[in-house]
Amino acid sequence: MEDKLKDMIDQIRPFLIMEGGDIEFVKYEDNFLYIKLTGACKNCIYQDNTINDGIFEFFKTEVPELQGVININL
Fold this sequence. Notes:
By secondary structure, the chain is α+β, with helices and mostly antiparallel strands. The chain has helices at residues 2-18, 47-62, and strands spanning 21-29, 32-39, 68-71. It has a single domain (2-71), classed as 2-Layer Sandwich (GMP Synthetase, Chain A, domain 3), CATH 3.30.300.
């Protein structure tokens, strides 16, 4: 499952890079995807929208058991 999620992250990465941000896979645990948004995405006021309306919806189509995407600010 982790390889599939990492491949999917690689598919959306170019869109975030175009906006000055990036995304990193942290882990997949208990049907939650943990990511780390970096660059411009790290402090963007639209971060929640990006995660819930963009990233989560994209992943949910391929991984129906996914319950959510959690951004880890390390």
